[in-house]
Amino acid sequence: MPRTRPPFRADHVGSLLRSAPLKGAREQRDQGQITPDQLRTVEDQEIEKIIRKQEEIGLKLATDGEYRRAVWSVDFFEHLQGVQGYIAEQGVQFQGVMSTPRSFRIVGKIGFKGHPMLDHFGFLKAHARGIPKMTIPSPSVMHFRYGSDALKPIYPDLDVFFSDLAATYKAAVRAFYDAGCRYLQLDDTVWAYLCSQDQLAQSRARGDDPDRLQERYARTINQALEGRPSDLTVTMHACRGNFRSAWISEGGYEPVAESLFNAVNVDGYFLEYDTERAGGFEPLRFLPKGHKVVVLGLITSKSGTLEKEDDVKRRIDEATKFAPLDQLALSPQCGFASTEEGNTIAEDEQWAKLRMIIKIAEEIWGES
């Protein structure tokens, strides 16, 4: 059965490969050859193109591809009150590669007093014929990578930090809604990292008790979403790391599934299922019967090899042993460019994967 509101049977996480004109303009701006206004003009032109492309291939939603961002998370965090972006000594270690060293630090009481991404969404909404989808990092991401020990100079009482974090995000959610957003996604690496023994060890080293984090994060997200309008759909993407096609964490969803599906008040979950690192579909048995949807990330964004349609359909059928077909949908496992560098995949391969997702969704659910 087709869905009339998001997440759609054929959906995508959000980021798209940056176009050649955009990359060129960014390089020119970095070298001082063009002004910020000239860069924005190129961004506007290129975003319009990818909005039209998403419509052309048949998607019901449209994103701006995160074309105005360099790093999916830092670009949002650094414009919150009390947060400062900076260039770190080194980036985050992925499998075989170190990420860009852009990072953020907490320098004061965090809060929300407007944000440039509100204008970014406004441009998307003004040009999209389909449902405009906004993506922002989840509040749990800010804490997990930073760690409680690093917060102590500003927030000696961790409960106060989480209270401020929830209030900051509640204001952000309301601001995006007032700007016309009806499809908001929280990109959240943390729930997948809590399935990784290596990431749990790193969390302990940063002064945290991982056994308490699921409850803390669920409560913070719920407080941020408390009282949201009924016509606002909020989804969460559980990511295992995505930089130049590399990844960070591995481990099935079993350790977090019951909390994730039942204690976090979102409408849908984009789950990565493109490799064995994600484990099996058994954790889907915790999905409550009702309106919540799991968007199966069965199509990889990390390589250009196009999956076989029959293999994808077979895996969807396997998933229905643990969750109703009506509560499932299909997407790539992650964005195609969580950072401006992008994954090792060509643009035509990116669009071919999205077209296949639409075709499979039409055949299985009648999505059109």
Explain how this protein is built.
The protein is α/β, with parallel strands linked by helices and 368 residues long. The chain has a domain at 74-116 and 133-333: Alpha-Beta Barrel (TIM Barrel), CATH 3.20.20. Helices cover 41% and strands 16% of the residues. It has 13 helices and 12 strands. The strands form 4 sheets. It has a 6-stranded parallel sheet with strand order 7-8-9-10-11-12. A two-stranded parallel ribbon has the order 1-6. A hairpin with a 2-residue loop joins strand 3 (93-94) and strand 4 (97-98). Helix 1 (20-30) packs antiparallel against helix 2, helix 7 (158-178) runs parallel beside helix 10 and helix 10 runs parallel beside helix 11. The longest helix has 22 residues, at 36-57. The radius of gyration is 19 Å and the shape is globular. The model has no long low-confidence stretch (mean pLDDT 93).
Radius of gyration: 19 Å
Helix percent band: 40-55%
Strand order of the largest sheet: 7-8-9-10-11-12
Low-confidence stretches: none
Proportion of residues in β-strands: 15-25%
User: How would the global form be characterised?
Assistant: globular
The count of β-strands is 12
CATH class of the domain at 74-116 and 133-333: Alpha Beta
Largest sheet: 6 strands, parallel
Structural class by sheet pairing and helices: alpha/beta
- CATH architectural type of the domain at 74-116 and 133-333: Alpha-Beta Barrel
